[in-house]
Amino acid sequence: MATGVSVENINPKVILGPSSIAECIVTNARREINRYLTFFFQHLQQQLQTQPGSLPFDEIVYCNIGNPQSLGQKPITFFREVLALCNHPNLLEREEIKSLFSTDAIARAKKILSMIPGRATGAYSHSQGIKGLRDEIAAGIASRDGFPANADDIFLTNGASPGVHMMMQLLIRNNRDGIMCPIPQYSLYSASLALHGGALVPYYLDESSGWGLEVSKLKNQLEDARSKGITVRALVVINPGNPTGQILDEQQQYELVKFCKDEELVLLADEVYQENIYVTNKKINSFKKIARSMGYNGDDLQLVSLHSVSKGYYGECGKRGGYMEVTGFSTPVREQLYKIASVNLCSNITGQILASLIMDPPKAGDASYDLYEEERDNILKSLSRRAKAMESAFNSIDGITCNKTEGAMYLFPRIYLPQKAIEAARAVNKAPDVFYALRLLDTTGIVVTPGSGFGQVAGTWHVRCTILPQEEKIPSMISRFREFHEEFMSQYRD
Amino acid sequence: MATGVSVENINPKVILGPSSIAECIVTNARREINRYLTFFFQHLQQQLQTQPGSLPFDEIVYCNIGNPQSLGQKPITFFREVLALCNHPNLLEREEIKSLFSTDAIARAKKILSMIPGRATGAYSHSQGIKGLRDEIAAGIASRDGFPANADDIFLTNGASPGVHMMMQLLIRNNRDGIMCPIPQYSLYSASLALHGGALVPYYLDESSGWGLEVSKLKNQLEDARSKGITVRALVVINPGNPTGQILDEQQQYELVKFCKDEELVLLADEVYQENIYVTNKKINSFKKIARSMGYNGDDLQLVSLHSVSKGYYGECGKRGGYMEVTGFSTPVREQLYKIASVNLCSNITGQILASLIMDPPKAGDASYDLYEEERDNILKSLSRRAKAMESAFNSIDGITCNKTEGAMYLFPRIYLPQKAIEAARAVNKAPDVFYALRLLDTTGIVVTPGSGFGQVAGTWHVRCTILPQEEKIPSMISRFREFHEEFMSQYRD
């Protein structure tokens, strides 16, 4: 290899070592762990193919990433019809499409094309996204919340992740700027903070109260960071939670909004799982709705709401679509945000169109509505059944407890590891939960993500397990998990 | 507005002020100028609609951005057929598609779906992109160059811009790390360098020799930067040039490759216009082909080649597809690059598919080939005619000279502004070329980008003008331009 650029002289922020960021208690562990697991199960996958019967399982079950369509979830027909027509608008001139596409998909595709200058889905759009699509999304938000929304506040993005990076780029000046993040936490935030050289200010979710949060503790953590010279700029909240699956109750949301207002923190609300709800006693309120219902407007609170086409009942991860709704920022700041958006010209138009569709799906009376409703409800009901089945299975296993998955796509069971297992893990230089997860994979073919990647209270061990495996595979998966766990525990019993 | 985050306390790298980066002689001027022009012509556009006849022109001609489909260029039918089928794979089960899609588009869509685990175009892919598509791209590169290419070296991206940002993120540690960039230069590089806090080390293209470059001068500029304490990490070359439209001759390419090898600089080769060639006496050689034909392999040179679906004869800007081919880096560095790629999970699958299609279009004998060839050749021949017509028109105007557009999509004529015009511009606090461009827009409706946005030798003034207006509009556009220029010159004659 040529020698100019080596791993010793690249940008150290990329290396993401925990030592580079004082407050960063969640490192890029999850990413590293996932890559390690990936390497591991690629070998297993190969062995399954080349030497069938040589392993104690005959397939790998991926519970490590929220990627529904990779596990067989089918896309919503209406959405795909519209995308196909928008990608090849010549079809709209052909009679034959009437037997291939629903009438409302045809009408919607025509409407969307009419919003695009020159009907050109192959042209760069405005860097915030196509204005007509932003209008549709704003109307969808207004109808969801009962409060007005404005297309000028919408930035269409290639999924939620680039929105997070844009905000980090805007907010982080140096390693004395910090962002409050929940622990446990989906590591997008910690990874992005590390890449931008900022400080992670943790606040802990309380496992014993269903991963709830207490504002008084937030205040302590904020004061603590400030006393160390950190300028705390924003607070991240993920609702429903990832990896924790809880839904915040309204009272917690009110307190959180007031806290951010009082402390002049940007509220970064990750609301990508807003359609994934599996309980009837709670509902999802967007933070914008909560803030507005408290009488707070843009003069009171700087609020960024993130949404994505990757989750919900649609699960369109590969389309890379999403949006940020940005309120409460001055015109000069928004201009700088626009400048950041324009550095990559625009997000992909297929993803932009899909973002408008999820915010304005078929309505009762539309030709596609019955099929749409059936597809959507089947997916959500199945996810709900899977969440309950897996949660109750985990809770029935000795040495595991698991909070209810109220929303999102994950369970985050706590594994009570015996001291001997912890020592065995240390002996091979692995975190105990990584040791457990690798052994699980090796024995059962089940891939989960160790809790170390999300952060956890010291001395507690968890794994994140998606609820996405196909429903018919869950009983056998659960029994393999149970059998593994019992053997593991009896091997290492103190 | 709420007050926590204001333009005074955001990340100053975003503000991109020239003073923040010692060596940054090209600032974000082009972006600022484009935004100013955009504001200006949006007003004009509105006035055209609300008060027809009130302006000295009846339409706005956009020559400011390389966005072909926004100006009526039609997409390649085969590509869009494949995208439609991949976006809605259920269509492949229907008989009716035989009358709507070509047989090879159907076969290609099936082949592509077979490369995707679970045929799931809605799933996240590997963070470098779908392996099967990278295989196709590598095969396309190998067939283009006559030297092997490897799917593991390919990173699929949302257009070329994110590839550039990834490399900046990898290479730039602080403001003492620099990148050599051509002047004039498409401002993606200067903007990205500013955002990542690095130093721009300029090397000038020589207008008098058709925007050629001399390696001896490169060496001087490198030494100069080093003497100032800058660690120069990479050299950007754009071939064909943007905004300058030249094609490097082979000798220059050989010297450039040797220079980068000897100086241990990463060669960042922006080759997005590799299909846009309008002369017969030169051909495009990729820098990889040049390096390999000199006997240099990955042990000798760190090379990054950038490509995009946005340019060429396809012009699919809105799809946000592209790739980087990365050779000569050690495994640990590539792992860090992979980590950066994985921060956004993956690029959009529609763009990934399209990137594979442009590297493996229909071949002679395929059902779509005749139509494909006709569409492609019509576009390229028309672009070539437009380039020649506009170049010869500019050269026939007194006070303007224009190098030949050998490739890419732009002319970069030099405007010899009289001293009085320069003073008039200074009096209203504008750069003279901005003053000229705004006056042009105001008088004729023609939008060009002032040379200030790309950098130019001090005391020379240029505008960048795309060759993309529809062919039938070019004669009247040229005559309006000529008439404007003559009036402008007679108004300000010294």
TrEMBL record, chains A, B:
<comment type="subunit">
    <text>Homodimer.</text>
</comment>
<comment type="pathway">
    <text>Photosynthesis; C4 acid pathway.</text>
</comment>
<keyword id="KW-0808">Transferase</keyword>
<dbReference type="InterPro" id="IPR004839">
    <property type="entry name" value="Aminotransferase_I/II_large"/>
</dbReference>
<dbReference type="GO" id="GO:0004021">
    <property type="term" value="F:L-alanine:2-oxoglutarate aminotransferase activity"/>
</dbReference>
<dbReference type="GO" id="GO:0030170">
    <property type="term" value="F:pyridoxal phosphate binding"/>
</dbReference>
<dbReference type="InterPro" id="IPR015424">
    <property type="entry name" value="PyrdxlP-dep_Trfase"/>
</dbReference>
<comment type="pathway">
    <text>Amino-acid degradation; L-alanine degradation via transaminase pathway; pyruvate from L-alanine: step 1/1.</text>
</comment>
<keyword id="KW-0032">Aminotransferase</keyword>
<feature type="domain" description="Aminotransferase class I/classII large">
    <location>
        <begin position="110"/>
        <end position="472"/>
    </location>
</feature>
<protein>
    <recommendedName>
        <fullName>Alanine aminotransferase 2</fullName>
        <ecNumber>2.6.1.2</ecNumber>
    </recommendedName>
</protein>
<dbReference type="InterPro" id="IPR015422">
    <property type="entry name" value="PyrdxlP-dep_Trfase_small"/>
</dbReference>
<keyword id="KW-0663">Pyridoxal phosphate</keyword>
<dbReference type="InterPro" id="IPR045088">
    <property type="entry name" value="ALAT1/2-like"/>
</dbReference>
<dbReference type="Pfam" id="PF00155">
    <property type="entry name" value="Aminotran_1_2"/>
</dbReference>
<dbReference type="InterPro" id="IPR015421">
    <property type="entry name" value="PyrdxlP-dep_Trfase_major"/>
</dbReference>
<comment type="similarity">
    <text>Belongs to the class-I pyridoxal-phosphate-dependent aminotransferase family. Alanine aminotransferase subfamily.</text>
</comment>
<comment type="function">
    <text>Transfer of C3 units between the cytosol of mesophyll and bundle sheath cells to maintain a nitrogen-carbon balance in the C4-dicarboxylic pathway.</text>
</comment>
<dbReference type="GO" id="GO:0042853">
    <property type="term" value="P:L-alanine catabolic process"/>
</dbReference>
